[in-house]
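Researcher: Next sequence.
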Amino acid sequence: MALKHLKTAEFDAAVEAAPLAMVDFWASWCGPCKMLSPLVEALAEQYDGKALVAKVNVDEEPDLAARFGVMSIPTVVFLKNGREFDRKVGVMPPDAFISVLDKNL
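Model: Next structure:
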């Protein structure tokens, strides 16, 4: 499951099909989002087959951003069986994301 770019229409099915999901809410104009992007891409490769690592462009999918109450970006939401259980806001070191993923696999 390499990095996926999710749209509203496919979001629920994709997240519910994965035992664990990490979703990065971002925008192309956001500097911190650009800083976080290489890490998200690396995690998608590292957790391929174990967790869904996805991105949602808040400009293209404002309903999804509103549904998750995303007030600032980047916001990374972690879901298990389709339900949010954790989130990280802003650019953080890799361990902040890896520890959540490893603990919940």
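Model: Strands lie at 4-5, 20-26, 52-57, 75-80, 83-89. The two ends are 15 Å apart (CA to CA).
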